[in-house]
Design goal:
single chain; about 250 residues; alpha+beta; two-stranded antiparallel ribbon; globular; binds iron/sulfur cluster
Length: about 250
């Protein structure tokens, strides 16, 4: 069995949710425009690095969703997203700060977005598209990001980076770098081991992590199952028959 970062983090967030998703086959319906757009944008980035017309690729990919009944956040429309995306791609090309050696690398322990250089420093790169900026402080905050620690553990490479495409009125790109220590990688390896042991032992207790005013259940796609709310289940989930060992490959688009 191979586990993706998304699987491990979903188990750590709430084992019950993990069971619904990976064992019982309850998948979230794609209703959020931003999620589908993020995928189209990453494909356009791939086109940019292949020296193709990335704006045309973005438009073509996003066109496929023109009539989808997505939930758009306040102030978002199909057109606005594509315009923001094109501006971000232009800004990215103007900045010229990123060089890529390989896109979507497969390692024995998993996949990651890219390996390349930012401002001449070789690092692992993860792309994010978001509506609001990532916090940049206090200093060193990014080195605690579990996804980046996971990627560093996968590859053994200490230098990591997030390239954050911020979709706002004046589009902005953040180039955030961090260094992951050997100790952090070892610690993450132990976390993976204990988590996979728990999964394989069949421990799926609910662990919602509710602490007022944050309530992780509100944003959990499986809330309808926990509340026995048929309406919520029908709105948010679709059931695939069981889960397969290769399910985690779908997570690459996350
Ligand atoms: S709704 Fe809450 S308790 Fe239920 S699976 Fe989701 S996070 Fe866990």
């Amino acid at each position: 069995m191979v586990y993706s970062y998304t699987q491990i983090s979903q188990y750590l967030r709430c084992p019950r949710s993990y069971r619904y998703r990976y064992l019982d086959g309850w998948r979230e319906k794609e209703t959020r425009a931003a999620m589908a757009f993020g995928r189209c944008f990453e494909n356009a980035l791939g086109a940019y690095f292949r020296e193709e017309d990335c704006s045309a690729v973005l438009f073509k990919e996003w066109e496929a969703y023109r009539d989808s009944p997505f939930e758009f956040k306040k102030g978002e429309t199909w057109d606005r997203l594509v315009h923001q995306g094109v501006h971000l791609l232009q800004r990215f090309a103007q900045d010229g700060r990123v060089r890529i050696q390989n896109l979507t690398w497969r390692f024995l322990r998993g996949y990651l977005d890219a390996i390349g250089e930012i401002d001449g420093v070789r690092c692992l790169i993860d792309w994010k598209t978001t509506k609001s900026r990532y916090p940049e402080g206090p200093e060193g905050l990014l080195s605690l990001d579990p996804q980046l620690i996971c990627y560093s553990w996968i590859t053994g490479i200490p230098e990591v980076a997030l390239v954050v495409f911020v979709r706002k009125h004046a589009p902005e790109i953040q180039y955030l770098r961090a260094r992951i220590s050997e100790e952090q990688r070892q610690e993450f390896g132990r976390l993976v081991e204990t988590t996979t042991n728990q999964i394989e032992a069949g421990h799926f207790n609910s662990h919602s992590g509710i602490r007022f005013p944050q309530n992780g259940c509100v944003s959990c796609s499986h809330l309808g199952l926990c509340l026995n709310n048929e309406q919520l289940i029908a709105a948010k989930l679709i059931r695939k028959p069981g889960a397969s060992d290769l399910d985690w490959l779908d997570e690459l688009v996350d």
